[in-house]
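Objective 1.3, modelling of assemblies. Example input:
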Amino acid sequence: MKRETILLHNGNEIDEQTGALSIPIYNTSTFHQKDFEKAQEWEYTRSGNPTRQALENTLAAIENGTHGFAFASGMAAISSAILALFRPGDHIIATKDIYGGAWRFFSKFINEFGVEITFADFTDISAVEKLIKPNTKAVYIESPTNPLLRIVDIEQTAALAKKHKLISLIDNTFMTPYLMRPLDLGIDVSIHSATKFLGGHSDLIAGAVITKSEELARKIKFTQNALGTILGPNDSWLLMRGIKTLGARMDVEGKSALAIAEWLTKQPWVSEVFYPGLPGHPGHETVKRQARGFGSVLSFKTDSFETARTILKNTKIWAIAVSLGGVDSIMSYPVTMSHASIPEDIRNELGITNTLIRLSVGLEHPDDLISDIKQAAEKAL
Ligand SMILES: *Cc1c(COP(=O)(O)O)cnc(C)c1O
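Predicted structure (tokens):
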């Protein structure tokens, strides 16, 4: 089956009891046990709930995994996966320009429990290999990275992990399982902030973890129940609803993102555009090989802080907000928003400067989105 169809038909979309074309929301904490001496499928919602189960099966199906897990947020998914799979003394090598919240979890939390972290530039895989030590247990990557949209070669990273018997994890939030399936490329664990494209409507906070390893799945399931970082039944239903339109949204938003990126490259007040869909992007050929689209997040640098400020102050259609992946277009300013928790010197080293603006392109007509940026930028001239 094609990916568009799997989003809608994966064996988890129809209620077995009634035939309803929408899985009921089982708003219950506990389940009556027919025989108190026997375990049964549903006992307590932290351990398992039919609405969440339908979602988790859907997540596994759309990413071509065997086990899916739904969490209370993207950070709950990331932290639970790390806590499930690693122990004090273990060493993890992670992408340098990683999501701010993941950076905080790695460098201000899990490190205090004795899990060692090294950040590395995964576009140079031989440099990453040199960082592997006897206690290295994992590589953790993002592609494209946030907010500068650098592309990591997934197959190359997975091969390096296999060679050294490391667990490979990816945060696949930006690409989504519709555009890229990391497990098919050899990655062990795929993680999402489902708050973004999977939910797709900026109306929910959720996270997901998918794997096709029995052993890793067993550890993740144990940890999800032990920590209680589960997604509730109402949000599970809302997320299932969002997933149904993922393909259509990614197609339209990706097309608009490319149009906006191309337009931005021609503006005199733009100094640099970061979008893997542009032929000049250093990761363009790699992303074409490993994904079937470029996504709908892009960023650009203006000629001065003043221009960036004027655009952010004067747009009318674009929401000025953190987050991305919703049907409404969002403009964000990484320095004070998503990457505020990263110290300034590290930010500057990563290229996250005060002239950088990030866009998440939604479903509005691209002409309107372009005119809105244009009128805002012209106020600076
Ligand atoms: C938003 C985001 C997260 C964190 O997800 P939450 O749902 O906000 O907890 C993790 N990774 C990436 C790439 C994100 O964009």
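The chain is about 40% helix and 15% strand.
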